[in-house]
Design brief:
This protein is α+β, with helices and mostly antiparallel strands. It is elongated, with a radius of gyration of 23 Å. The chain has 5 helices and 8 strands. 24% of the residues lie in helices and 31% in strands. Strand 6 and strand 7 (123-126) form a beta hairpin. It has a 4-stranded antiparallel β-sheet, covered by helices on one side. Among the domains are: 1-52, no CATH class; 93-150, Alpha-Beta Plaits (2-Layer Sandwich), CATH 3.30.70.
């Protein structure tokens, strides 16, 4: 059991944790939640302390963690910084709009890119980066109105990596066990 009694933490004159008392009891999973700046930890690492956070909330993890360990089927399948993890496990894409969208789509497709058209007239392009798309447009005298690299999210990278690593899918139990 982990037990804290009258825990207080100050940063100068700012009280981050004020007389907090709690117990983390064995045999149950206890979450530690609070808004950013509430005193959960996420400046303890800056003090050189160790912070180990477990969560399935990707948006919070992306805002909180510096490094990830990803486990699936009982083994570590990733051990990397957040940026390295996202870059390694996602497909970069670029949002582009042009005065001649059909011409640009055809030129990009000829060069091996995948082009997905958006309802607002833009295209999402994978397979070429922003510089290559700009070069294609320039070579074909196509005027670009928008050219923006889209960053993948931690959630997208996580699901890409673990797509085939899960034992359970929604509405399905594997093996012969039933219930929790």
């Amino acid at each position: 059991m982990i037990q804290a009694q009258h825990l207080t933490k100050r940063y100068g004159t700012t009280v981050a944790v004020d007389e907090a008392s709690f117990a983390v009891r064995p045999g149950r999973v206890t979450g530690f939640l609070g808004p950013n700046g509430a005193g959960k930890s996420k400046s303890l690492a800056a003090q050189g302390r160790t912070v180990f956070l477990s969560s399935h909330l990707m948006s919070e993890m992306a805002l909180t963690a510096d490094h990830l360990l990803v486990i699936a089927r009982g083994r570590i399948i990733a051990d990397a910084s957040i940026d390295e993890f996202v870059n390694r496990n996602s497909t970069p894409s670029v949002r582009v709009r042009a005065l001649q969208p059909a011409d640009l789509a055809a030129a990009l497709t000829r060069r091996g890119a995948a082009v997905e058209r958006c309802p607002d007239g833009a295209m999402i392009v994978t397979g070429l980066d922003s510089a290559a798309i700009g070069a294609v447009a320039s070579a074909d005298d196509i005027t670009l109105l928008e050219l923006a690299a889209l960053g993948a999210s931690l959630e997208e990278a996580f699901f890409e990596l673990t797509r085939d690593e899960t034992d359970y899918h929604a509405g399905q139990l594997t093996g012969t066990s039933q219930g929790a």
